[in-house]
Amino acid sequence: MGLLDLSRQLMRRCDDLGAISEERGQLTRTFASPAMRRANKLVGSWMRAAGLQVREDAAFNLLGRWESKKRGAKTFLLGSHLDTVRNAGKYDGPLGVLTAIAAVQLLRERRVELPFHVEVVGFSDEEGVRYHTTYLGSRALAGTLTAADLAHVAEKQIVKARRPRGEFFGYAEVHIEQGPVLEEKNLPVGVVTAVAGQSRLQVEFQGAAGHAGTVPMKQRRDALAGAAEFILAVEAIAADGAGTVATVGKLSVAHGASNVIPGHALLTLDVRDQRDSQRLAVVRALRAKAKAICKQRGLELSWKPVQQAAAVPCDKILTQIFSNCVAQRGLEVLKLPSGAGHDAVVLAAICPVAMLFVRCKKGISHNPAESVKPADVRVAVEVLADFILRLAKNCSGAL
Ligand SMILES: [Zn+2]
Question: For residues 79 and 3, what is the distance between their CA atoms, to the nearest angstrom?
Fold first, then answer.
């Protein structure tokens, strides 16, 4: 089967896999659900057809292995996740797994021999829908689950999925971009530089509730007006940060009524950047701004960090190999950060990682309207197959 047929087959497989759901009329496939078991069975059959040895590990990760004949060879891991959010699209996750299978199939048909083993993985939980604990599948494999994580999970045996340290010498993941940058630049694929770090905070403005008709404007301590001023400052300050993104996604006004001056407003703040120092500088600047707003308006501020994650840089050498593969197709090499988290973040704890983004329509994801072009998928398969070949050339002496 040539590249064209392989990528057509891949598109059909995305459709078939997209029909396997635990909810009627929409795509939802969560960790360890019957739908996921059916999905693993189907994808496992495709792995077998590509010549891979298939098994499911203790964390329901699906694994397909291509053994090298070379003695003492290490393993390179390719893949993404097979679980979905509720009412999902067909490509977030599965595209990466199926692209890896197609690339392996292409190389095996060309009778390529590699100096390392290749394992294709379909992780069982990236989205964290079932237990609100993201990356269960990849963290089980990487051996980075904590007792606190396991406290929420019924399937305690998932820790047995842990693989020995040093077994993998790298991980590469193909994923839809989930953003509009590639579409705007009219490019099929892009090379990921890092997964952005993230600060999540809860910010509260405390003022004084009062009668909307009787308290003069100058004597008000309107918490919502303060929050509104802050929200616009978030937008403006992040825009100055060249690459920083900041979002107030939730705002709640206590005892909201049309004839009451808001006495309390609570909002969430999400700040991301691939440079940790820049992200932290923006958070500091926003805090100073919130304090200034509160001082001027007679409000009290509560500033609570909820969650913080450092940026995860992609490996320079693997990323360069991806860039060379893209350039060889005569395409502009666009390097971009990922604003969303991926399994690669987890794998980065145990081996070098790299990611390739595929353009998706209007940047839409986590939505049934997710869409990719067959021609872009063809480029992704070709680039990934080429990546494996170049990797083999790079390290045939070293391994
Ligand atoms: Zn994903």
Answer: 19
CB neighbours (10 Å) of residue 315?
A: 18
Distance 163 CA to ligand 1 centre (A): 22
Is there a contact between 261 and 211 (Cβ–Cβ < 8 Å)? yes
Contact 282, 246 (CB under 8 A): yes
Type of residue found at 61 = N
Classify the phi-psi angles of 27: left when phi > 0, otherwise alpha if psi is within -120 to 50, otherwise beta.
Answer: beta
**Strands 117-123 and 75-81, sheet pairing:** parallel
Cα dihedral 332, 333, 338, 343 sign? positive
pLDDT of amino acid 133: 81
Burial bucket for residue 186 (CB in 10 Å: 0-12, 13-18, 19+): exposed
Q: What distance in angstroms lies between residue 92's CA and the mean position of ligand 1's atoms?
A: 5
Q: What separation, in Å, do the N-terminal and C-terminal C-alpha atoms of the chain show?
A: 30
Name the average pLDDT for the chain.
Answer: 96
**The dihedral of CA 124, 127, 130, 131: what is its sign?**
positive
Q: Cα–Cα distances in Å, from 214 out to 211, 259, 260?
A: 6, 10, 10
Alpha-carbon radius of gyration of the chain: 24
Centroid of ligand 1 to alpha carbon of 185 (angstroms)? 22
CA of 396 to the centre of ligand 1 (A): 31
Tell whether the model's pLDDT for residue 157 goes beyond 90: yes
User: How far is the centre of ligand 1, averaged over its atoms, from the C-alpha of 175 (Å)?
Assistant: 7
Domains and CATH numbers, the chain: 3-195+311-395 (3.40.630.10), 197-309 (3.30.70.360)
CA 359 – ligand 1 centroid, Å: 14
CA distance 172 to 174: 7
Q: In this predicted structure, what is the pLDDT of residue 286? A: 98
